[in-house]
């Protein structure tokens, strides 16, 4: 590997030879690759902090790519690239476009070289480019509700150091605009009847079947485009609540929710779980419980391309 070399895969593997962006639990297919300390550290980190928005910075292409990276057909030996859309497709596409349209060249969607794909408006659904198993952006979204996209910032995989100031100038405004999107949508607190915060209350936007949770301070955030929504709130030992709210363009919506102890047989019952999160399959409750495969099914293909 030398400075200025524009192709290759060096740098994506750890010292044990594992590709870290294929090492996370996966929604669509059980990932049997042995977990690595680096990915375990990221999983621990994201389990402790309610991240709202995230961008993974890569090289080797010029495009903003968004979930899903994998597809329901990934369990089969042979499958092709096709869009695999999340319940938050509108938000993810908006986030990707926010980056590409503020970049001087990404939004033009030009192919990096002959034989490489071109991307309309400089954005793509990950699986439409090529599907992969074990990527970080799908994991962070499905397990923790973090709106993560992948930002491919350079056609040259390993650009010379002299080019770095130009890359910074090209990406400074897109990064600022992208990060500002964390303030779009709804935010607030989930509290009990005495105004104490409820930690790890489970929330979901109706018809968007990927949930998220409150922090230890009862805080929550969700990026949404303007519209009318219903927030579904659950917490162990409390009566669930649905709250209608509106999101506008000009500023985020502040929404505080009060939950009251559930009553069973006329008595308060807050010492055990009364309500489960119905939108989560069992394997999504824990990072240690990925989905199960049918016996005998194995898949090793990860597609072709330059994406990390």
TrEMBL record:
Instruction: Look up keyword Transferase and say if it applies.
Output: no
Superkingdom of this protein's organism: Eukaryota
User: Can you tell me which residues form the catalytic site?
Assistant: 152 (proton donor/acceptor)
- What UniProt keywords apply to this chain's record, in alphabetical order? Carboxypeptidase, Glycoprotein, Hydrolase, Metal-binding, Protease, Zinc
* InterPro entries with a match to the protein in the record: CarboxyPept-like_regulatory, CARBOXYPEPT_ZN_2, Peptidase_M14, Peptidase_M14_domain
Key word Glycoprotein present: yes
Q: Which family does it belong to?
A: Belongs to the peptidase M14 family.
By what name is this protein known?
A: Carboxypeptidase m-like protein isoform x1
């Amino acid at each position: 590997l030398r400075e200025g070399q524009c192709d290759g895969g060096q740098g994506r593997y750890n010292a044990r030879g594992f590709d870290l962006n294929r090492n996370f639990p996966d929604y669509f297919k059980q990932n049997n690759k042995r977990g690595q300390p680096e990915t375990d550290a990221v999983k621990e980190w994201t389990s402790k902090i309610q991240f709202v928005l995230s961008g993974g910075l890569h090289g080797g292409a010029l495009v903003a790519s968004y979930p899903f990276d994998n597809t329901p057909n990934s369990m089969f030996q042979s499958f092709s690239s096709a869009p695999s859309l999340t319940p938050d497709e509108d938000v993810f596409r908006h986030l990707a476009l926010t980056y590409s349209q503020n970049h001087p060249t990404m939004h033009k969607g030009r192919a990096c070289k002959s034989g490489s794909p071109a991307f309309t408006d400089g954005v793509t659904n990950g699986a439409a480019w090529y599907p992969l198993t074990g990527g970080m952006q799908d994991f962070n979204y499905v397990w923790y509700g973090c709106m993560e996209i992948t930002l491919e910032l350079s056609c040259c995989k390993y650009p010379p150091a002299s080019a770095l100031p130009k890359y910074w100038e090209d990406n400074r405004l897109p990064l600022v605009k992208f990060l500002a999107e964390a303030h779009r949508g709804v935010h607030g607190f989930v509290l009990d009847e005495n105004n104490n915060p409820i930690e790890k209350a489970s929330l979901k936007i109706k018809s968007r079947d990927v949930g998220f949770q409150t922090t230890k301070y009862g805080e929550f955030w969700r990026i949404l485009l303007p519209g009318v929504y219903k927030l579904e709130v659950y917490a162990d030992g409390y009566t669930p609540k649905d709250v209608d709210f509106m999101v506008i363009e000009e500023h985020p919506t502040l929404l505080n929710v009060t939950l009251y102890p559930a009553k069973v047989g006329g008595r308060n019952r807050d010492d055990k779980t009364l309500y489960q999160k119905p939108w989560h399959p069992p394997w999504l409750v824990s990072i240690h419980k990925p989905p199960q495969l049918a016996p005998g099914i194995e898949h090793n293909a990860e597609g072709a391309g330059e994406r990390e």
